[in-house]
Amino acid sequence: MSSAASSSWTAAGASLVRPTTISIFPCLLHPENPVVFLDVSIPARNPTTGRMELPAPQGTTGFAHPAAGTHRVVIELFAHKAPALAHNVYAMCTGTTQRVVNGKDTSVGYMGTVVYASNPGGSVTLGDVLRNDGSGMFSIYNHGNHFYAMPPFQKDVLVGDDCGLPIERGYVVAAPVPGLPSSTEGQPVSSSIQILLDAPSSMQNFADASLIVGRVIGRTPTEVERSIAHLQHTSKVVFQVLRAAASNAQEEKVLPGVVLCGEL
Question: Gene3D superfamilies, alphabetically (predicted)?
Answer without folding.
Answer: Cyclophilin-like
